[in-house]
Amino acid sequence: MTSSTLAIEGISVETARHGSPLVLVDNVSLILGAGEVLALVGANGSGKSLTCAASLDVLPPGTRMTSGSVSIDGSVLQRSMLRARHIATIMQNPRSAFNPVRTMQEHARETLSALGIPKAEGDQRILQAIRASGLDEPERLLRLHSFEMSGGMLQRMMIALALATEAPFLFADEPTTDLDLIVQREILDLLDHLKRERRLGILLVTHDMGVVAKLADRVAVMDGGRIVETAPVADIFLAPRHVTTQRLVEAHLSLYNLSGVAA
User: Fold this and answer.
1) 205 and 182, same domain (yes or no)
2) Nearest Cα to 47, choosing from 36, 32, 59, 61?
3) Percentage of residues in the chain having pLDDT higher than 70
4) Which tens digits make up the pLDDT trace of 112-143?
5) How many domains does the structure of the chain reveal?
6) Environment class of 136 (CB within 10 Å of its CB; exposed 0-12, middle 13-18, buried 19+)
7) Which of 38, 149, 170, 199 has the most CB atoms less than 10 A away?
8) Are 194 and 132 within one domain?
9) 263: in domain
10) CB 28 within 8 A of CB 226
11) Which of 211, 219, 212, 261 is nearest to 241 (CA)?
């Protein structure tokens, strides 16, 4: 993994409503470095996931990117060529990401074959990646279907598939949603370990400020399709400037009855 900087520049996304364009993401720019976790936070509907989808050229039907580019180390790349080669992805609700009639090995071989990786090399990569993701008995796990695995195991398997691509950057969209608290902590610890050991640059999309506090180095706050504040994680919690950031932090502290900590 030799790439050091991913730049998302001027991304705008719109949809049509009653025949008129509606801007959903408005001129969003983000910089992500190797070995860094940048948390992209905001309320549901603020444009977080759409920003990632536009960057990877996987926007849902009815939406379109009207401006923007993605570059790695200063070189602008075709967005469809970024997926897996330069940016791996993991999503919320991992069970929905796997075809229940296919084994884990079939999923892995399809992913690596699409990157032009020979079968023998791909098989070794996935075995190593499964071990790196904290799962034992990789040969046995590869024979399983998704319905034979827990949500935590599937999330680790999704991380393993991302690692096997050897992409230097990872987009993690709500990676702990629908997991119990113990498994959430384990997944966050794993991502933190991979950031440090592999210098993986992680764009963490979440609305959970507890996850942000645990994992992020910097935070970008979205509201109404725009970035309204970007700062180191400590500044976000101790001295939030924008009203949206203040409300997110206040909601987090009140949820855990920690309002006195901010004083």
Assistant:
1) yes
2) 59
3) 95
4) 998 889 999 999 999 999 999 999 999 999 99
5) 2
6) exposed
7) 170
8) no
9) no
10) yes
11) 219
The domain that contains 28 carries what CATH number? 3.40.50.300
Same domain for 176 and 162: no
* Sequence-separated (6 or more) residues with CB below 8 Å from residue 221: 41, 42, 227, 228, 229, 230, 236, 242, 244, 245, 248
One domain, residues 182 and 243: yes
In a domain, 91, yes or no: no
**CB contact at 8 A, 50 and 63:** yes
Domain of 82 in residue numbering reads as 1-86+169-258
**Residue 227 in contact with residue 242, Cβ under 8 Å?**
no
Asked whether the beta carbons of 169 and 86 are under 8 A apart, the reply is yes
State the Cα–Cα distance between residues 148 and 20, nearest whole angstrom: 47
d(CA 161, CA 48): 23
Is residue 249 domain-shared with residue 146, that is, in the same domain?
Answer: no
Joined together, the tokens standing for residue 178 give 């629908």
Alpha-carbon distance of 86 to 202, in angstroms, equals 12
DSSP bridge pairs for 152: none
Per residue in 46-77, pLDDT (tens digit) is 999 999 999 999 999 999 999 999 999 999 98
Region 24-53 average pLDDT: 95
Q: How far apart are CA 179 and CA 155, in angstroms?
A: 9
Beta bridge partners of residue 260, listed in sequence order: none
Which residues have CB under 8 Å from 121's CB, separation 6+? none
Here the tokens at position 248 are: 């997110």
pLDDT of the residue at 16 = 79
Q: Please, are residues 58 and 83 in contact by the beta-carbon 8 Å criterion?
A: yes
* One domain for residues 179 and 254: yes
Taking the C-alpha atoms of residue 72 and residue 229, their distance in angstroms, rounded to an integer, is 23
